[in-house]
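Re: [ENG-882] Designed sequences occasionally contain unexpected residues at chain ends

Forwarding the minimal case from QA. Structure tokens:
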């Protein structure tokens, strides 16, 4: 099969090459890939040489099952699916555990559905950590990115009053159209305290976002797009105006033993297919143009998601 493999001698650190077909484990299905969604994290790992040459990277992909799992779990041959894994998505064929496969409605846009696994699942699972959000204020930093866009929409659907943080003035109207009640350039500009923060940025924005938490509020750290150290000034954890019992936690998508990833992927795929969730695809093209997509993503010129179609 053909695959995009790590090649640290190439300018883009990637090359389209022939590699052996994957051999699925008994609990894995073999999927013929039709579309790939890029994430900043995996692209950054490739560009900075963190993966050995010959590795087939990739977390998110849609496709069709061509060999069902030998243990009888998961979808049958011919089923359209959306898949999540730590590697292997950037290829014509992918072996994926059935626990991280969701089914895709007939006629759905595979490219749009491919944006779901990392971005939408992360948004969904972090928002669940905040508990009941109906009528509560939820702040989302990095709101114009892949996770942020899904988080804004899902939080609005859950009845939250959403505060979206984006430094790009052009994104104000976009985020308001997605349902954000308040759009600010920086967490320090928030009009009043918030119940929860989904933080995609870290750095000094994370410090300001923590300062915006109400009593009993929590901040979940998801990303680190600012590439800055997080330094809390002396006194940051002293209760201010009675705002005590505030917390910070980290998040890793596949670390929750109670999460039903397959069911969540299937539900999210249905929501995107029905037009109730907008993935915000802003770059789309054949996978032979991978160097364009990765350069745009790494250069921070992309707002939303990039999709590669496997020809």
């Amino acid at each position: 099969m053909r695959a995009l493999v790590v090649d640290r001698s190439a300018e883009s650190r990637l090359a389209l090459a022939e590699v052996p077909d994957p051999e699925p484990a008994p609990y894995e299905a073999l999927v013929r890939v039709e579309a790939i969604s890029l994430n900043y994290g995996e692209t950054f790992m490739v560009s900075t040489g963190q993966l050995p040459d010959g590795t087939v990277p990739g977390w998110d992909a849609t496709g069709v099952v061509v060999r069902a799992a030998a243990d009888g779990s998961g979808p049958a041959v011919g089923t359209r699916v959306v898949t999540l894994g730590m590697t292997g998505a950037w290829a014509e064929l992918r072996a994926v555990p059935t626990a991280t496969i969701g089914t895709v409605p007939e006629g759905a846009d595979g490219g749009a559905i491919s944006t779901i696994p990392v971005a939408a699942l992360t948004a969904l699972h972090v928002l669940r950590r905040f508990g009941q959000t109906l009528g509560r204020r939820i702040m989302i930093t990095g709101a114009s990115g892949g996770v942020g866009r899904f988080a804004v929409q899902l939080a609005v659907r859950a009845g939250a009053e959403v505060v979206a943080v984006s430094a790009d003035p052009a994104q104000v109207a976009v985020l308001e159209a997605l349902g954000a009640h308040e759009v600010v350039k920086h967490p320090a500009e928030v009009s009043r305290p918030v119940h929860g923060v989904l933080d995609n940025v870290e750095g000094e924005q994370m410090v300001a976002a923590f300062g915006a938490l109400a009593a009993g509020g929590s901040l979940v750290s998801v990303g680190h797009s600012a590439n800055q150290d997080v330094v809390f000034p002396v006194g940051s954890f002293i209760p201010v105006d009675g705002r005590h019992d505030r917390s910070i936690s980290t998040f890793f998508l596949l670390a929750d033993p109670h999460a039903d990833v397959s069911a969540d992927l299937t539900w999210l795929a249905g929501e995107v297919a029905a037009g109730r969730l907008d993935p915000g695809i802003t770059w789309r093209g054949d996978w032979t143009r991978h160097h364009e997509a990765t350069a745009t993503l790494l250069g921070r010129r992309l707002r939303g998601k990039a999709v590669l179609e496997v020809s």
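QA comment: On inspection the terminal residues look reasonable. The first strand starts at residue 2 and ends at 6. Proposing we downgrade this to a documentation issue.
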